[in-house]
Amino acid sequence: MAAKQRSVYRCAECGAEHPKWAGRCDGCGAWNTLVEEIAQQPRKRGGGTGQPSAQPPVRLTDVSPDRTPRISTGLAELDYVLGGGLVPGSLVLIGGEPGVGKSTLLLQAAARLQAAGVTTLYAAGEESVDQVRLRADRIAEDAGGVLVLPEVRVDAIIAQAAQTGARVVVVDSIQTTYTDELDGAPGNVGQVRECAARLMRYAKASGAAALLVGHVTRGGIIAGPKTLEHMVDTVVYFEGDPHSGFRILRAVKNRFGSVDEVGIFEMTSAGLSPVANPSAAFLAGRNADSAGTAVTALIEGTRPVLIEIQALAAKAGFGTPQRVATGLEHKRLAVLLAVLERRGGFPFHDLDVFVNVTGGVRLIEPASDLAVVAALVSSVTDRPLPADAVFLGEVGLGGEIRPVAGTDRRLAEAERQGFRRAYVAARSKVAGRVELIPIAHVTDLGARLAA
Ligand code: TYD
Ligand code: MG
């Protein structure tokens, strides 16, 4: 066992070093920013100033383009999001809320990697070997060959990775991993950073790819591991409502690929399975004849995907009316309701309003505004919207409807899924076989929707 090293506490804001932990940084006065780390001994550098480094520089044209052959995880959607597979020597952080399916995804990947002859070590810090085994029995893959290591000490994980010659190391999760050279409990920022740094050094030195699981809190930040985002090569988020079947895998940072691609999965009784036609899956079970539902086309990564938005406005009881939004930011809903009320003359102030995006999808683009307001108006007027229509438009504070980027791609997907009409901003310029119904302002909604 390595001798215990001296710790220092560094301010995450200003970088000031403190010998002891304190609630407030002496350097910048910020509270609760001190993070434990191992004190660095001043290193003797090979060669003083002025001496050339041991490695001569190379011309970029002399660097062969296939220096980094990728390791396919066997899960096409995961490979796609990673930019074509795992890069040897890289560190990938997979973040997601508890229960979303991170362990399932990585066990499936581990099974396929192992089946393809890539030695894979799965360090399980959150579950016993028996629990991993139970999960392995559920998934469609044969995970029998995967090496499972019930271990939380980072150095022991690294030692086993070296000993087994694993090409891929899964650490589930980085929050349970620790080193006893730091005093902090597993999961605190200092531990998480130090463990990730050691795994990173191991990955770079050995050429193994490391996949770290990081839990994200409801607010959307990777607790603790948020500070890892700039250390690791790739950050992938696994999103989706744990109660609905669909999951979206999204790269938010990728040193080896674009961050535009998403992978869409469905959680089944036999693990995660890729969704070939996400629009059809998200619209399955839609009751187009009822009031308060509208369809819009989002762009997930580079793919247009149709989703359904449901709204229900009901007479409020006593007190402040409720506003409940699932899959849509509360603030956005508040803005849209205010615009409908003030600019459109639709009274919502004494109604409870519930908005739900089906499939567990989260609306981030303003392009879906028009669908949200159309669903709200449909609910409040109790008139169903045309079943074969999609809604594309951003709603401005003046009540004006603005065109959205990528309208033609969204319309092409709508057409593919059998939609015949599109309500779009008056200024949208697109050609296609879908009938366009221009909407200039929210006041047009009532009249246009009745048409
Ligand atoms: P899990 O991978 O344990 O999530 P995480 O590691 O992100 O916390 O997945 C948890 C959920 O997935 C759990 O509620 C059970 C469900 N599940 C299935 O529905 N089917 C399956 O085949 C498996 C393995 C899990
Ligand atoms: Mg897990």
Short description:
The chain is an alpha/beta fold.
Describe this structure in words.
The structure is a single chain. The protein has 451 residues and is of the alpha/beta class. The chain folds into three domains: 7-38; 70-276, P-loop containing nucleotide triphosphate hydrolases (Rossmann fold); 281-450, Ribosomal Protein S5, domain 2 (2-Layer Sandwich), CATH 3.30.230.10. It contains ten helices and 21 strands. The protein has helices spanning 76-82, 102-115, 129-138, 154-164, 189-206, 278-283, 330-342, 369-381, 407-416, 443-450, and strands at 7-11, 17-18, 34-38, 91-96, 120-124, 147-149, 168-172, 209-215, 234-239, 246-254, 262-268, 271-274, 293-300, 303-315, 323-326, 351-357, 389-392, 394-395, 401-402, 421-425, 435-439. The strands form five sheets. It has a nine-stranded mixed β-sheet with strand order 6-5-7-8-4-9-10-11-12, sandwiched between helices. It has a four-stranded mixed β-sheet with strand order 13-14-16-15. Strands 2-1-3 form a three-stranded antiparallel β-sheet. Strand 7, helix 5 (189-206) and strand 8 form a beta-alpha-beta unit. Helix 4 (154-164) runs parallel beside helix 5 and helix 7 packs across helix 8. The protein is globular. The chain starts with 6 loop residues before the first strand and ends with a helix. The mean pLDDT is 88.
